[in-house]
């Protein structure tokens, strides 16, 4: 081997592809049979009667060791070793795969059931936890002395063919909610397999300047190496029919359809439309494995020193190991496991034919298991425009292998599609660590647009009145209105007699004969006056005075006293009135205001006590001022002060109808306004008994 035992293995896969194929395309509602590869539920209630894939191809590569300008790579004289940007670590990764889809087709077997049959060839290469520094050293023609721990690298390369059959059905359809599910069963035919796993491997190189062919490699550790056949004796790939297996894919799709309520339209006849506002997809793919009947697997003790000449003379990796290390044969067939993964996406119909998709592809297997293939974890956001004969999309994705964001572009033109998930970012980056490309040719047969001439939502095939709009519940015919009262016959309780809609098309009656129709009569079964909305006036206390005229509706009293009982007044003695006014003289206000000073509250509370002893007595509260200032302002101030006293008494429980208030300004002085003492006496509040 002229370069390296591992470097050659890794770079050989650089022409394969990453495990997720057709990035940006398979979420399209017009992806057809390609969609079944990622979610088998996608084929039911699709835009196709049938979709035939003639041939399609998807290929990509990603790693975290080498970054390049892809346009420079194809130029003459490009030196990968010196011009590529290198990012070596103790645990570098490479993830590769190729996906070829052969003749395949999908078709509907019933309105809510679909089938797909596909053929497919796949190749996956995974290399993880490889020391990139060793790769760099081994790739050089002129090496320097080095001593590196490779650790425990794990590598697998697997190629196989698939024949699959998918079935999908509508599981639930109610109102705005739509759920479909699907399953794929796959027969797997193994083609070729390599796998290698090291344990505490190290490589030390000692250069012999005088005799380079005698330079030495000292390796330590152990390794397991296996393949689908003994390639050291036969380098040609022999496909063995006994090297086979089985796989399963499962998928669910939920759609929220706020504009297409299944209870009001024949949704199953509108397959030509994309009906959802939001779509949620979830799938578990590649459950299964295959067994290579003639597979070989050996354990190798790597504790040995070999020369450069030993290394260079090996024709292939298998022969190199057998010639230089002692193998221990591991009996039994070689089992290779599929790259089981979860795919989840949310698709949002932004407006009309514009969509945006958020997708995640995640491996659910341990990448450290021997001979276990896996996909690279990836999250992508893809805006797109889609129509029957044309789609355009721009996927933006991030993968955990190369730790870079990629931007691509793709389009579909009916029978042909082509795209890449990385072409735009590769065009401007000098450090691209991933590339992908896909294309395909197919024959789509789309669902025909159902006819609805009158636009009433009932398709012509089910419409008894195809030229006149009508509701679905009347088989597409308008409801009649025999009496022309605006209430359709289906809702009219009086088909031949006009009446308002709120009375189910019947004229209103006057059941109690009080001249008020029942629709405005609050007591339709009992006659009553119009002014009481058709109800008789009540007499709650049964005293002969109707409540409308009764000032005491809950207590009986004679008509001449307005229905209130006659209460004999408790006579108020003159000294009591005098006492009230003595209290009132001590009521003080803020200067120029009607605000009662706090020190007056005690006097007011004493007045309340007296008034409560005479519950039927009525009083007038009078406000007075001196003659100082403007007469109009004095009048207003006296009114406000009298009202303030009234409000205070009411707040303490005195009934408001027992009190009145009035202001007289300076009109009723009780002393001369020419002296200070007189003016003080004139500024007062009086509380007088109403006779």
Number of strands: 28
**Average predicted confidence as pLDDT:** 86
Low-confidence stretches: 1-19
Radius of gyration: 48 Å
Task: Give a short account of the largest sheet.
Answer: 23 strands, antiparallel
Q: How much helix is in the residues?
A: 10-25%
Q: How many domains is the backbone divided into?
A: 3
Taken as a percent bin, the fraction of beta residues is 35-45%
Tally the helices: what do you get?
11
CATH topology of the largest domain: Porin
Which CATH first-tier class of the largest domain would you pick? Mainly Beta
Write the CATH architecture name of the largest domain.
Answer: Beta Barrel
- What is the structural class? mainly beta
Instruction: State the end-to-end distance.
Output: 131 Å
Coarse morphology: elongated
Topology:
Layout: H1 7-12, E1 48-63, E2 66-67, H2 70-73, H3 80-83, E3 85-86, E4 92-101, E5 104-110, E6 113-130, H4 132-138, E7 146-151, E8 154-174, E9 177-206, E10 216-227, E11 244-256, E12 278-292, E13 296-301, E14 304-307, H5 308-312, H6 317-324, E15 327-330, E16 334-337, E17 341-351, E18 354-363, E19 378-386, E20 391-393, E21 396-399, E22 404-407, E23 409-412, E24 416-420, H7 423-428, E25 434-446, H8 574-584, H9 601-613, E26 619-624, H10 631-651, E27 659-663, H11 676-682, E28 684-689
Parallel strand pairs: 26-27
Antiparallel strand pairs: 1-4, 1-5, 1-25, 2-3, 4-6, 5-6, 6-8, 7-9, 8-9, 9-10, 9-11, 10-13, 10-14, 11-12, 12-16, 12-17, 13-15, 17-18, 18-19, 19-20, 19-21, 20-23, 21-22, 23-24, 24-25, 26-28
């Amino acid at each position: 081997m002229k370069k390296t035992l591992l470097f050659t293995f890794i770079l050989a896969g650089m022409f394969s592809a990453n495990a997720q194929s057709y990035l940006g395309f398979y979420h399209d509602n017009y992806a057809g049979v390609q969609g079944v590869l990622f979610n088998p539920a996608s084929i039911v209630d699709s835009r196709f009667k049938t979709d035939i894939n003639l041939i399609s191809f998807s290929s990509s590569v990603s790693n975290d060791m080498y970054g390049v300008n892809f346009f420079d790579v194809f130029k003459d004289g490009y030196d990968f070793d010196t011009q590529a940007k290198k990012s070596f670590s103790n645990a570098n990764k490479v993830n590769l795969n190729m996906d070829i889809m052969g003749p395949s087709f999908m078709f509907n077997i019933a309105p809510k059931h679909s089938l797909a049959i596909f053929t497919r060839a796949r190749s996956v290469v995974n290399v993880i936890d490889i020391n990139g520094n060793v790769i760099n050293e081994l790739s050089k023609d002129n090496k320097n002395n080095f001593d590196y721990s490779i650790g425990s690298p794990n590598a697998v390369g697997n190629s196989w063919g698939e024949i699959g059959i998918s079935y999908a059905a509508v599981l639930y359809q109610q109102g705005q909610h739509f759920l479909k599910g699907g399953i794929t069963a796959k027969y797997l035919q193994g083609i070729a397999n390599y796998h290698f796993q090291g344990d505490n491997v190290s490589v030390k190189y000692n250069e012999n300047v005088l005799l380079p062919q005698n330079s030495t490699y000292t390796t330590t550790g152990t390794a397991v190496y296996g393949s689908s056949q003994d390639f050291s004796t036969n380098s040609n790939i022999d496909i063995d029919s006994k090297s086979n297996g089985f796989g399963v894919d499962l998928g669910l799709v939920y759609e929220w359809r706020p504009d297409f309520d299944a209870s009001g339209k024949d949704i199953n006849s509108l397959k030509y439309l994309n009906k959802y506002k939001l779509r949620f997809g979830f799938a578990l793919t590649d459950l299964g494995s295959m067994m290579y009947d003639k597979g070989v697997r050996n354990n190798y003790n790597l504790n040995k020193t070999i020369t450069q000449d030993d290394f260079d003379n090996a024709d292939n990796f298998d022969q190199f190991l057998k010639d230089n290390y002692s193998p221990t044969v591991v009996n039994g067939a070689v089992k290779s496991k599929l790259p089981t993964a979860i795919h989840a996406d949310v698709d949002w119909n932004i407006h009309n034919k514009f969509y945006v998709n958020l997708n995640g592809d995640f491996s659910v297997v341990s990448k450290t298991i021997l001979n276990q293939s896996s996909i690279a974890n990836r999250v992508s956001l893809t805006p797109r425009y889609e129509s029957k004969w044309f789609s355009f999309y721009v996927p933006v994705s991030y993968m955990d292998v190369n730790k870079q964001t990629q931007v691509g572009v793709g389009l579909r033109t009916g029978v042909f599609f082509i795209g890449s998930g990385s072409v735009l970012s590769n065009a401007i980056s000098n450090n691209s660590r991933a590339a992908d490309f896909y294309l395909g040719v197919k024959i789509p047969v789309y669902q025909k647009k159902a006819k609805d001439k009158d636009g009433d939502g009932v398709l012509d095939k089910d419409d008894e009145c195809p030229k006149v709009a009508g509701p679905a519940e009347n088989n597409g015919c308008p409801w009649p209105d025999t009496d022309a009262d605006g209430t359709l016959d289906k809702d009219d309780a009086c088909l031949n007699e006009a009446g308002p809609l709120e009375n189910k098309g019947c004229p209103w009656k006057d059941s109690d004969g009080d001249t008020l129709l029942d629709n405005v009569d609050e007591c339709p079964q009992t006659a009553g006056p119009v002014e009481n909305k058709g109800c008789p006036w009540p007499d709650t206390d049964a005293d002969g005075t109707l409540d409308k005229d009764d000032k005491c509706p809950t207590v009986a009293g004679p008509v001449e006293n307005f229905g209130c009982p006659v209460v004999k007044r408790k006579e108020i003695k003159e000294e009591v009135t005098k006492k009230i006014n003595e209290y009132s003289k001590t009521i003080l206000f803020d200067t120029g205001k009607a605000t009662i000073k706090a020190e007056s509250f005690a006097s007011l509370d004493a007045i309340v006590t007296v008034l409560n002893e005479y519950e039927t007595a009525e009083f007038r509260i009078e406000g007075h001022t001196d003659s100082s200032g403007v007469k109009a302002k004095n009048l207003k101030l006296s009114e406000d002060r009298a009202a303030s006293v009234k409000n205070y008494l009411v707040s303490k429980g005195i009934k408001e109808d027992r009190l009145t208030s009035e202001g007289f300004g300076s009109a009723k002085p009780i002393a001369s306004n020419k002296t200070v003492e007189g003016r003080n006496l004139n500024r007062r509040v009086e509380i007088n008994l109403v006779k």
